[in-house]
Amino acid sequence: MDEFERELHQALERRPAPPGLKRKVMDARSRIRTQRVRNQTVIWQRLAACVVLAGVLCGGFAWHEREEQRKGEAAKREVMTALRITGHALNQVKEQLAAHDHEN
Amino acid sequence: MAHDWQPDFEQLVDEHQSMVFSLAARMTGDRGLAEEIAQDVFLELDRNLGKLESAAHACFWLRRVAMNRSADAMRRRKVRCTDFWIEIEEGHAASREERGSPLGARLEQMVATLPEPQRAALVLRYQEDLTPEEIAATLDAPLATVKSQLQRGLKLLRAKAESQLKEYVRAKG
After folding, report:
1. Mapped to the 3 state alphabet, what secondary structure does B73-122 carry?
2. In this structure, which of A42, A66, A89, B30 has its CB flanked by the most CB atoms within 10 Å?
3. How far apart are alpha carbons A88 and A64 in whole angstroms?
């Protein structure tokens, strides 16, 4: 290293950082961390709300399906009862007609 | 990868703020911008603290990120090298007395007028005392390129000094 390089080395020695730099860095770090925690809380809250909403929707859908099935089965039972009554009535008419034919 | 080093962020800021700020200031020529860059570099350090394996690794990482951020900032803001001297004059008026040598101050000014790659190599060589191999690793550049930038930078600086610095010529004579 010659004289010129020694001068250059001296000229380029490190300068002190501005007095408030460390405090600004620590403050910004603290702010970012607080914001990160807040963001995570918001994310968890949203996730929980989504889960609850999904649960309500699924429950509603399942209830609706079960209700439809119950109504279908009730309708089926009514149709079967109606068919049974109709069959019974037709049998009676048939018997009456047969008795009437037999008398004639 | 497991490592035993337990970094203390505040201590790292204490130890390296001068280095990071000086690198950014000399590369951008803007004290305010250099302070912003230094803040960004340390906040990024906080995010990457878990990946660093030793104090030396942290120092290398800080130098590298400071140089990269400074280059990005210069590309974005297109700060002219000549602004550096004005900033130095304004910002370090008090510290000029401390550093004493007007020749040193003129040399610092002339370094600021060098092309960016040569300035980066010279700042890392003479501010940080890095070897060409370490500079190549820091700048992620081929060793031959770094050596060439150092030689060209020094040659240009000597030429500027010869023509502009009477003190230097006198001292040399």
Report:
1. HHHHHCCCCCHHHHHHHHHCHHHHHHHCCHHHHHHHHHHHCCCHHHHHHH
2. B30
3. 36
| pLDDT at B171 (0 to 100) | 57
Of residues A98 and B165, the one with the higher pLDDT is A98
Residue B82, both tokens: 């000549």
Alpha-helical segments (H) within chain B: 9-28, 31-48, 55-77, 83-91, 93-99, 102-112, 116-122, 132-139, 143-164, 166-172
* pLDDT above 60 for A62: yes
CB pairs < 8 Å spanning A and B = 93
Mean pLDDT calculated for residue range A28-47: 94
Residue with tokens 């001292």: B171
Provide the mean pLDDT of chain B.
Answer: 84
Separation between Cα atoms, residue B132 and residue A53, nearest integer Å:
62
B123: contact with A, CB 8 A cutoff = yes
- Give the separation between CA B56 and CA B170, rounded to whole angstroms: 41
Interface contact flag, B35 A11, Cβ < 8 Å: no
CA-to-CA distance for A71 and A61, rounded, in angstroms? 15
**Sorting pLDDT into bands at 50, 70 and 90, what band is B98?**
very low
Q: Is A43 helix (H, G, I), strand (E, B) or coil?
A: helix
A49 and chain B: CB distance < 8 Å anywhere?
Answer: no
pTM over 0.80: no
For B21, the closest of A9, A11, A21 (CB atoms) is A21
Reading the block at residue A1, the tokens are 């290293």
Eight-state DSSP code of residue A35: H
Residue B73's Cβ-side half-sphere holds a number of Cα atoms within 13 Å equal to 27
